[in-house]
């Protein structure tokens, strides 16, 4: 796979925001379509880069094929993470990049970042109906932690997953 994972660059922020919106819409994750209030959050890449870490997957030509936000403990982007946990959010892969292992590679990059910070566990929240994503997480070693399921807004349920970093390579 000729893909590089690295910190997103400011000149890529708009493209990353649009990739996230397009991927979330294609996967049915924006209940109100283009008018969904979450589209604004997805496009706030510059803000996320100031308060968390935005990683991107690019091909040899520099085309952005995927992105994810890694939130260390204390980051305003950490929603369910405890003090010894890293969290990733807003993972998306462009339709043309799917099926190439890019999503898994981005998740593993977040896990490596968490290990580098001495964290013991990685957590995430996911919509219930994204079965392909759930399978990727489970293959990596994530398991469900239903006691931490939550609703960011009434009627939107998110499932919680965790993976002990010592159990994965």
From TrEMBL:
Gene3D superfamilies per record: 3.40.630.30
Keyword terms of this UniProt record: Acyltransferase, Transferase
InterPro entries cross-referenced by the UniProt entry: Acyl_CoA_acyltransferase (IPR016181), Bact_Acetyltransf (IPR050832), GNAT_dom (IPR000182)
Gene Ontology MF: a single term: acyltransferase activity, transferring groups other than amino-acyl groups
Pfam entry (one): Acetyltransf_1
Domain named N-acetyltransferase: residues: 3-163
The name this protein goes by in its record: N-acetyltransferase
